[in-house]
C-alpha cells in the first residue's frame, strides 16, 4: 500500500472497457499489472465480447482485478458503470488495445499537487498493430478560461486515453451514450472548464492505431456530433466572448458572432454547417459595419483573402476583432509584417483576446518552428 506525505492512502481505479479485444488484451493488462505504482484496482468491463476476451481475463488471478460482464452497451455506458463502481481517489482510463509505460500511474499521480487539479494527462506514442511506432501526439496545457473556446474551435488538447482524473470530478459529469465518437472530448471539455489540468510532456501512453479503432469511423454526423452539442448547449456569449456584448446593437453583435462561428466550423471541416450559420449572420446584420465584417469572413471562407481584407478595411470601427481578421488576411497573403502589426494592435486594444496570440504562434510556424525539447529529433 502506497501512502502520501500525510500518511493517507490514495487508491487508483483503472477502468478498461473490453469489446472483442482479444488480440491485444494480454499486452494491455500486463502493462497495467506491471506498474511501478501498485496500489490500484483494475476494473475490466466486458461489453458483450464474442471473441476470447473473457477467457483471457479469467486467466488472471491478481486480486486487484474486478471483472464485470454485460450485454453490449457501448463505451460511454461501460465507462459510466465503471465510474460508479470505482473506489479509488483517482480514476485512470485505458483502452483494451493500448499500453501504459510502467511509470505512468506513478508519474500522473504525483502531479496532483493541488486540490484545484482535477485532471493530469500526458503525450502519446502512436503504434500500429505490430507495435511499430507510427507517430507522436503532443498534448498541451489549457487554461480554464480558454478551454471551451479551444474544444470548440480546434478540438481537444488532451488525448482522452492518457488521463488520470480526481474522483470528485465525476460527481456531476458522465459520458454521453448518444455520442459514438468524441464522447471523451465532451467529458474533457466540461472538466477543463471547472478544474485545473496538468500536462506531462512525456509518452506515458501507447495508443494503437488499427482497422478496428472506433475513431477511424468517418460518418459526418457521428464525427461532429460532439461539436454540434457544444453549439446547442452554450450561448453565443459563451462561445464568442471577445464581442463586447454590453455595448452596441445586440442583433449586430449576434451577426458578428454567427459569422465567426461559421468560419470556425469551416476550419474544423464541418462544411455542411457553414452556410446555415453564415446565412443566419447575414439575416441578423442591419448596420454597415456588421455587413462589411460578415462579407470579410465570407471571403476568408471562400479563400479570397484580398477581397476579405478590403471588406474589413471598410469597417469604420477597427476594434480588436477587425484588427485580428485583417491580420489573418495579411498572413494568408504572406504579408507577414503587416500581419504582425495587426495582431499586436488587436492585443493593444484587448489584451485578453486569445485569437491574435494563437495567430502570432502561427506566423512563427511559417518560417521555422523550434521546440526547446529536441528529444524527438534524436533518431531523425
From TrEMBL:
Annotated Pfam families: Glycos_transf_2
PANTHER family: GLYCOSYLTRANSFERASE, UDP-GLCNAC:BETAGAL BETA-1,3-N-ACETYLGLUCOSAMINYLTRANSFERASE-LIKE PROTEIN 1
Protein name (database record): Glycosyltransferase
Keywords: Transferase
GO terms, molecular function: hexosyltransferase activity
Positions of the Glycosyltransferase 2-like domain: 13-173
Record-stated family: Belongs to the glycosyltransferase 2 family.
Source species, domain of life: Bacteria
Lineage: Bacteria, Bacillati, Bacillota, Bacilli, Bacillales
Amino acid at each position: 500500500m502506497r501512502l502520501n506525505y500525510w500518511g493517507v492512502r490514495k487508491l487508483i481505479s483503472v477502468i478498461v472497457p473490453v469489446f472483442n479485444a482479444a488480440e491485444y488484451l494480454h499486452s494491455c493488462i500486463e502493462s497495467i499489472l506491471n506498474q511501478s505504482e501498485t496500489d490500484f484496482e483494475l476494473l475490466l468491463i466486458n461489453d458483450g465480447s464474442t471473441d476470447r476476451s473473457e477467457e483471457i481475463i479469467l486467466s488472471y488471478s491478481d486480486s486487484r482485478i474486478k471483472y464485470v460482464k454485460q450485454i453490449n452497451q457501448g463505451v460511454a455506458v461501460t465507462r459510466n458503470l465503471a465510474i460508479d463502481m470505482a473506489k479509488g481517489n483517482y480514476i485512470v482510463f485505458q483502452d483494451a488495445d493500448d499500453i501504459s509505460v510502467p511509470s505512468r500511474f506513478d508519474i500522473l499521480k504525483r502531479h496532483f499537487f493541488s486540490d484545484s487539479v482535477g485532471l493530469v494527462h500526458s503525450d502519446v506514442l502512436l503504434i500500429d498493430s505490430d507495435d511499430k511506432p507510427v507517430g507522436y501526439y503532443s498534448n498541451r496545457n489549457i487554461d480554464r478560461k480558454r478551454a471551451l473556446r479551444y474544444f470548440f474551435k480546434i478540438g481537444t488538447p488532451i488525448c482522452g486515453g492518457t488521463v488520470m482524473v480526481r474522483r470528485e470530478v465525476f460527481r456531476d459529469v458522465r459520458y454521453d451514450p448518444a455520442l459514438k465518437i468524441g464522447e471523451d472530448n465532451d467529458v474533457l471539455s466540461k472538466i477543463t472548464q471547472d478544474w485545473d489540468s496538468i500536462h506531462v510532456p512525456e509518452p506515458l501512453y501507447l495508443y494503437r492505431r488499427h482497422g478496428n479503432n472506433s475513431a477511424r469511423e468517418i460518418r459526418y454526423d457521428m464525427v461532429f456530433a460532439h461539436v454540434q452539442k457544444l453549439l446547442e448547449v452554450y450561448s453565443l456569449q459563451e462561445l464568442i466572448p471577445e464581442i463586447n456584448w454590453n455595448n452596441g446593437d445586440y442583433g449586430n453583435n449576434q451577426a458578428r458572432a454567427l459569422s465567426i462561428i461559421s468560419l470556425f466550423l469551416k476550419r474544423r471541416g464541418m462544411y455542411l454547417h457553414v452556410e446555415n450559420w453564415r446565412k443566419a449572420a447575414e439575416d441578423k446584420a442591419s448596420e454597415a459595419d456588421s455587413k462589411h465584417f460578415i462579407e470579410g469572413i465570407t471571403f476568408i471562407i471562400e479563400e479570397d483573402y484580398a477581397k476579405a481584407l478590403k471588406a474589413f478595411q471598410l469597417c469604420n470601427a477597427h476594434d480588436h476583432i477587425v484588427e485580428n481578421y485583417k491580420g489573418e488576411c495579411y498572413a494568408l497573403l504572406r504579408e507577414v509584417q503587416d500581419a504582425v502589426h495587426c495582431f499586436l494592435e488587436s492585443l493593444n486594444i484587448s489584451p485578453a483576446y486569445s485569437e491574435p496570440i494563437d495567430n502570432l504562434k502561427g506566423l512563427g510556424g511559417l518560417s521555422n518552428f523550434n521546440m526547446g525539447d529536441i528529444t524527438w529529433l534524436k533518431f531523425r
